[in-house]
Amino acid sequence: MDFRKWTAALVAGAGLVAATLAAPATAYAQPGGTGAMDPDEWDEFSCIYTELMVLEDDEFYDVVDAYILEATEGDLYERALEALMPAVESCTDTHEWSADEQEIAMTMGIAGTVADALEGELLAAGLSEDELDDMIALVDEMSDDDVYMFLAEDWRRDEEFLERMGDDLVARGAPDDDDGISQAIVLIETYLIGMFQAERWLDVRDS
């Protein structure tokens, strides 16, 4: 399965190569797998995410907007890459990461940053904390086929899937309009990507 096109472009822009995994959809479909991280390992895994959280607002939203708009070239993409690289370089130097560890932490950092932004926007639009939690719980309840749709990006071209997922999220409290549904669906995608990267991180550490 492939990473989001924009994330893969950023990874390449940072001088890395995004991994393409031949594992079946069930390999990373649900959390659990290889075990949990201890607090120190979580801090290391989330290092880039933590540093992105303290970016200035314009830099923060360059990263968020470039992800959502799938910018793979141009000014927005370049600004997002410029905002990311100090965090990538700082965390890599601190933890002496391999190329795989760096790429995984970078992908997680991007997904987490976008998730935080979208959660803030949904809450500002009137979603309650309980409704947000109920939406996110969908991540643990969806089928392996649906998880694979997200991770392989097929959902962006599948109108039936978009309608079904949108209806489910609206039933859980997502705003019943195009923007709100789109934000909610991308939020679910970011959580799945984060879970997938956590599994990959543990696998790399165990290898």
Provide an overview of this structure.
The chain is mainly alpha-helical. The chain has one domain. The chain has eleven helices and no strands. Helix 4 crosses helix 5 and helix 10 crosses helix 11. The N terminus is likely disordered.
- Kindly give the count of domains: 1
Counting helices, strands and paired strands, the structural category is mainly alpha
> Residue share in helices?
over 70%
SSE pattern, N- to C-terminal: HHHHHHHHHHH
Task: Please state roughly what percent of the residues sit in beta strands, choosing from under 5%, 5-15%, 15-25%, 25-35%, 35-45% or over 45%.
Answer: under 5%
End-to-end separation:
20 Å
Mind summarizing the main beta sheet?
Answer: none
User: Compute the gyration radius: what is it?
Assistant: 16 Å
What kind of oligomer do you see?
A: single chain
Kindly report the average pLDDT value. 83
